[in-house]
C-alpha cells in the first residue's frame, strides 16, 4: 500500500493541529477516510469544503475513489481561501 503525505493548509491545518501527516492509502478516498478517523470533529467538517491536489495536480470533480495515490506522493488539502 502506498505511503503518502497529507499536507493541510489554512483552516484544515488549524483543525488537524499539524501541518502534515503520513498515511497508507491506495486512493484519495482511503486517505480521507483515514484522516477522518484520526481527526473526527472539526477537520471532518472542513474537509467537506476542501479541494485537493495530488502531487500538484488538481483532483477537480473526479470521484475520490478513482484517484490513485503513488508511494511517496503528496495530498494537499486546500480549504477555500479568502481574499485574492
From TrEMBL:
One BP annotation, GO: Mo-molybdopterin cofactor biosynthetic process
Family: Belongs to the MoaD family.
Recorded GO MF terms: nucleotide binding
Sorted UniProt keywords: Nucleotide-binding
Organism: Streptomyces aquilus
Protein's recorded name: Molybdopterin synthase sulfur carrier subunit
GO CC terms, sorted: molybdopterin adenylyltransferase complex
Keyword Nucleotide-binding: yes
Superkingdom of origin organism: Bacteria
